[in-house]
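Re: the pair you flagged

First of the two:
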Amino acid sequence: MSQFDLTGHVAIITGSSRGIGKASAWELAEHGAKVVISSRKQDACDVVAAEINGKFGEGTAIAVAANISDKAGLQHLVDATRAAFGKVDILVCNAASNPYYGPQEGIADDQFRKILDNNIISNHWLISMVAPEMRDRQAGSIIIISSIGGIRGTPIIGAYAISKAADMQLARNLAHEFGPFNVRVNCIAPGLIRTDFARALWENEAAVKARNATTPLRRIGEPEEIAGAVVFLASQASAFMTGQTIVIDGGVTI
């Protein structure tokens, strides 16, 4: 059996109606997992779940809308997953917010709080909801999609970068707490990826051309290029890895 085989495993992926989350859900299903598609809008989730079921068979995916800012909604997401599949083996905290681009001094208090609440507190909530059963089973993988913004300074997405650095520390803390129970917590830090979420950073062709000139691989990334790392962290292939951050950025940070 392949170390990457996820047959019999159940994964929740937030923000999975598009972008990195959607690509990750597809790749997890490709490797045998049952997947729960979640984002704010039920109809968008339904479309992705239907596509995955059409490819891998009915019952592979379900769609459960949830807003990451709503704690009760996240609990419903977890409860609906257990009702459908009986358990949660894999959690991918992918959904995030970034309502502000510009100098740190210009961000409004409500924008700063929204970023911190949605990118850190919501992950804490969701992890707290699934961790007890993982500890009881002594098996589980929690994956947080962070960003290279969390390991470098920025004059444009400062609050977002602060939240992503905090996600890395959240993973390190929880890796200590959950490690004795064989529950692993890791992060992925993507560079610039061609998603709707990051559109403001890549739709300017001149800016991307300048960025690519200093990127070793000379291009920005695609969502599918993050999804493979999600499968790695979800599977036995990474069984001895916890508390770490995998940087996938085309070489930008070197």
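Second of the two:
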Amino acid sequence: MKDLTPQQIVRELDRYIVGQNAAKRSVAIALRNRYRRLALPADLQSEITPKNILMIGPTGVGKTEIARRLAKMADAPFIKVEATKFTQVGYVGRDVESIIRDLMETAIGMVHEERVSQVRERAAQVAEKRILDILTAKAADDVTDEVAVASASSRGAAKGAATMTTAPASSGSGSGSGSSNSASPSAAPARRRRPTRKSVAERLARNELDEQMIEIELEPDEAIPSVFEFMAGFAGDEVGGDFQELLNAMPSSRRRSRQVSVKDARRLLTQEEANKLIDLDEVIEQGTQRVEQSGVVFLDEIDKIAGGRSESGPDVSGEGVQRDLLPIIEGSTVMTRFGPVKTDHVLWITAGAFHNSKPSDLIPELQGRLPLRVELAALTQDDYVRILTQPENSLVRQYTALLGVEGVNVEFTPDGLEEIARCAYSMNERIENIGARRLHTISERVLEDVSFDAPSLSGQTITVDAAFVDERLGELLKDEDLSRYIL
């Protein structure tokens, strides 16, 4: 994070998000302040709280993408949640503390994956040895079984030959000798050379045995936690019901056997051996530190819980949720199944369109905990053209790459891009403004026939110009009732 100056953060965001410079500057400063705080003495660190952000703007203008890219740059635990999923404590629904529990799960997964990548090579070697042991023993058992079957068959054949022999012993030594020699080959058990460990290892290294089925034993996914630790991972509404069902849901500690291919066994055993090489206590400690020092929560649709008090009783989906959010945003301790987590320095980025409400409709205490307010502008037609082409993950690049897999070369002309942008902007103005997401709908409709027939169009070049777009959307755009349902 030291190398990420606010200017560099904004430039990085510019690679994926068009416009919204004010919002980019605000989140860049918030991210840089995290580095600045961690560079201060410990006693001063605890006094500096994150400057939480309230983004105000219509849907589809880049609010979520800004928060997601910001967390990715900082390599920080990130979670996106909708405020409408939560209810006031005491009512059926998710409680707000589950946000931190989910964030903790994300952080543990991040740290665990990093540790696995560090020990993967060692774990793969141990897993290869285990598979080799299984294959060698299996080959030896197969040979033993074949020899046993062949020996039993030989004994049966020899017994039958002895029964059929009726010549007396005094009939001549030559005859007796000949009878003994003829029975000897059938009496000898069949033998097959046992494969050496070296030969099996060589075939395994060449992936020649990948499809062979073997039986492996796997450790349980995790040790059984205590009942209280296990219950800490559930929201209050999830714990009710039969307690026996809760116990049945707890992970089993018994080893389990599975019949899998060698290829799958290599993956499963590598993962298991990697887990053995990782200190889980250290993973939990590091995950907790990441949540507490650099966690980012993006709380969307906060405008849906803004509004006046209900005259008939408490507003379960509104003011009650806001009041439950207060202590977590301000800083409190939340119990998770990995232990307690402090939320004092978790960065909250909230967002809402505020079409039917306004930020001042939030309770004053919550407004005070969202000190930075940024207004995101609605997108123009020129913005849509830039969104189609400029970002590194632009729709034009995506469709060109996808159809290129089938050998189809798709070329977008400037007037074709202008027409797609015009159609998207026009639909947003006439029906409902869903921002840049409308470009996905329009582009998919324009290229629907090409995508469907792509395997038979291999080697051809498809030019998407204004006429091409108008041919597929012209009549549909004129029929306003139909376009409401399709576009």
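The first helix runs from residue 6 to 14.

-B.
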